[in-house]
Specification:
The protein is an alpha/beta fold. The longest helix is centred in the middle third of the chain and has 20 residues. The chain is 34% helix and 15% strand. It has a single domain, classed as Alpha-Beta Barrel (TIM Barrel). It has eleven helices and eleven strands.
Length: 327
């Protein structure tokens, strides 16, 4: 794992894989956490390797909420903004007894006020743990249908207290989590990821343009280091309309990152148009550890092997070569 990240240290900023803030935050088997001393020590090997290569790395912190199964969370019932099951959503489990594989998620229980305060504290502590582990900062994963997204989007939240109903209330959990993290480690070390138009993991908002421009405006007061927008959730999804991007650009006053199905040409266009300050690349980096060099020089990109993305060992992860010019 340390080798994989270090190979990609020429990125302007590495954002780690999603990392659990607690045992209840886990959505998928074989995914990492950052809530125990042993996990902090393990991540220190990664951050040291990246820094030794001159790179910078943020930890992406997540709680999946309802997007899990009891087998992944010690037999507990998942928690969410409301007791609403995510339909047609599966997660990967490995319970040590049955064959590992994908199963349907189950209905969560609605979080109590005490649950909400406990999770806010877990986010705060995870941010501190990330800094102890040597990360340069953290990215709060508030996108892709996971817990914070379940509070934001109207179709996943039918609460009747101060965390549900109005848009102001649905954004309250995001607001309080960000505030706790900023207080703990500083605004210059906190980024936030949102996904306004994706429907991944069953979250849908009735008025996404208004919801997410308000979310962007809300984040201004925290003076976080960046806002990261995930645009698409499947390969043939329509592009985010430029009018929506412009609305977000007008609403948010800080560094704006977009990610999702970009190539070098589209990335340059988005930055030149002023819609984005930075562009994130995910899958292209898997097979191209030297991606910035390839883009800068117009070298061809290698294709990753989908079958080796999850599980296994070195194959398909750290055995992709850098580009070599022919003699």
């Amino acid at each position: 794992m340390a080798t994989y990240y270090a190979q990609r240290a020429t990125a302007g900023l590495i954002i780690s894989e999603g990392t659990q803030i607690s045992p209840m935050a886990k959505g998928y088997a074989w995914t990492p956490g950052i809530y125990t001393p042993e996990q902090i020590t393990g991540w220190k090997k990664v951050t040291d390797a990246v820094h030794a290569k001159g790179g910078a790395i943020f930890a992406q912190l997540w709680h999946v909420g309802r997007v899990t199964h009891p087998d992944n969370i010690c037999g507990q019932q998942p928690i969410s903004s409301s007791a609403i099951k995510a339909e047609n959503v599966k997660v990967f489990i490995d319970n040590g007894t049955d064959e590992p594989g994908f199963v349907d998620v189950v209905e969560p229980r609605e979080m109590t006020a005490d649950d909400i305060q406990q999770v806010i504290e877990q986010y705060r502590q995870a941010a501190l743990n990330a800094i102890e582990a040597g990360f340069d900062g953290i990215e709060l994963h508030a996108a892709n249908g996971y817990l914070i997204n379940q509070f934001i989007d109207s179709e996943a939240n039918n609460r009747t207290d101060e965390y549900g109903g109005s848009l102001e209330n649905r954004l309250r959990f995001l607001d309080e989590v960000v505030a706790a993290m900023v207080k703990a480690i500083g605004a210059e070390r906190v980024g936030v990821r949102l996904a306004p138009l994706t429907t991944l993991n069953g979250t849908v908002d009735a008025d996404p343009i208004n919801t997410y421009t308000e979310a962007a405006t809300l984040l201004n007061k925290h003076k976080i280091v960046y806002l990261h927008i995930a645009e698409v959730d499947w390969d043939d999804a329509p592009d985010t309309p430029n009018a929506f991007k412009q609305a977000l650009r007008n609403a948010y006053q800080g560094v704006l990152i977009y990610a999702g199905r970009y190539n070098a040409e589209k990335a340059q266009q988005a930055i030149k148009a002023g819609l984005a300050d930075m562009i994130g690349f995910g899958r292209p980096f898997v097979a191209n550890p030297d991606l910035p060099n390839r883009i800068q020089n117009g070298y061809p990109l290698a294709e990753h092997v989908p079958e080796t993305l999850f599980g296994g060992n070195e194959k398909g992860l750290i055995d992709y070569p850098v580009y070599q010019l022919e003699d």
